[in-house]
Amino acid sequence: MSTDPYRVLQVDRAACPQVIEAAFGALREMALGDASEDAPRRLAELNRAHRVLVDPAARAAVDHQLGSAA
User: Fold this and answer.
1) What is the CATH number of the domain that holds 12?
2) Cβ(10)–Cβ(27) under 8 Å?
3) Residue 20, Cβ neighbours under 10 Å: how many?
4) Shortest CA distance to 21 belongs to which of 32, 9, 38, 3?
5) Number of compact structural domains in the chain
6) pTM to 2 decimals?
7) Which domain, by its residues, includes 61?
């Protein structure tokens, strides 16, 4: 994933699953209510970031990648 899923969901890297779910839900609702041409892309980006951060193995891989990039 080239885009930082933490930035996409606007959460800290230490965010617990509940915070991730809450952020995803709020941002998803905003994207669903958005009538702009960019809304489908934004919704897809949110969904990808959410899938990564709720999967412990995928999240660990992203954390490792982001740590290496720092």
Assistant:
1) 1.10.287.110
2) yes
3) 21
4) 9
5) 1
6) 0.88
7) 5-69
Cα distance between residue 18 and residue 63, in whole Å: 18
Name the E strands within the chain.
Answer: none
Q: How far apart are CA 60 and CA 65, in angstroms?
A: 9
Helices 17-32 and 39-54 meet at what angle, rounded to 10? 170
Report whether 59 contacts 20 (CB < 8 A).
no
Q: Both tokens of residue 51?
A: 């899938």
Dihedral angle sign, alpha carbons of residues 4, 23, 57, 43? negative
Per-residue pLDDT of the chain (70 residues; tens, 9 = 90+): 468 999 999 999 999 999 999 999 999 999 999 889 999 999 999 999 999 999 999 999 999 999 876 5
Backbone torsions φ then ψ of 36, nearest 5 degrees: -75, 165
